[in-house]
Hints:
Layout: H1 2-34, H2 38-48, H3 53-245, H4 250-275, E1 288-294, E2 300-303, E3 307-308, H5 310-323, H6 332-338, E4 340-345
Antiparallel strand pairs: 1-2, 1-3, 1-4
Helix pairs in contact: 1-3, 3-4, 4-5, 4-6
Amino acid sequence: xxxxxxxxxxxxxxxxxxxxxxxxxxxxxxxxxxxxxxxxxxxxxxxxxxxxxxxxxxxxxxxxxxxxxxxxxxxxxxxxxxxxxxxxxxxxxxxxxxxxxxxxxxxxxxxxxxxxxxxxxxxxxxxxxxxxxxxxxxxxxxxxxxxxxxxxxxxxxxxxxxxxxxxxxxxxxxxxxxxxxxxxxxxxxxxxxxxxxxxxxxxxxxxxxxxxxxxxxxxxxxxxxxxxxxxxxxxxxxxxxxxxxxxxxxxxxxxxxxxxxxxxxxxxxxxxxxxxxxxxxxxxxxxxxxxxxxxxxxxxxxxxxxxxxxxxxxxxxxxxxxxxxxxxxxxxxxxxxxxxxxxxxxxxx
Length: 349
């Protein structure tokens, strides 16, 4: 737009200068054309003053003076007009120059404004780009910081959760241990109480049973002693009879005596085991058959697997082990028979 306006101004200036030059030339040419030629006028004057030379001369002089005055006036007018034209041209030139300068100044100002606007726009663009870069960088840093904080928070949360879980587990274990210890203590106290009570009852029962067994054993021993005495007396009577009769079956009498002795010592062994046997009320009415191998001096060598009620068999085995040594006869034949015993043990309260 500024380039078109500048061209139009230059074109107008050229046309204006051309017109001023043409007017100047026409004025100059007009002055020369309009100026009267002296020879022609002189000839006219001469022709007009043929009658009076003096008058002609005066007239000619006056005409010449008038002509000179007119020429001077014309020249002055022409000079003034030329000067005015030159001044006008100069003014127009200066005006054109001023207009051109103003236009150039306006164009420069416009160019400057455009440059400033462009610079401002570029600066704004750079500012926006820088803001966008900083915003992107800030966003990236914020995201990285957020991710770091999130990871740290997650790590702390996991650590806190693990700590709380460990603490809770520890508390649960401690509480469970406390309860278990308390329950164990209570159970031990209850067991101790029951054991003491059971021991007291067992001791009382054992004492009762021992007294009863002792009484029974003594009665049984007395009975067996009486039977043995009777048997011995019978045997002796038999022997005496045989002696009187001159012989008889000595082997049969000896076998009967051995069987009786085995039964007697078997009863004594069972009585010894009964004295060391702790019998519970739940065991009454049950029994256990168990094999026991014994040394000749009564030392228990082996205890076989009991057959019968499991509780009775376990309790009977403990009683046998507690007894340790069983009563054995001195008769080798009877002793030999008692070294392999199959005992039927029946708990009695």
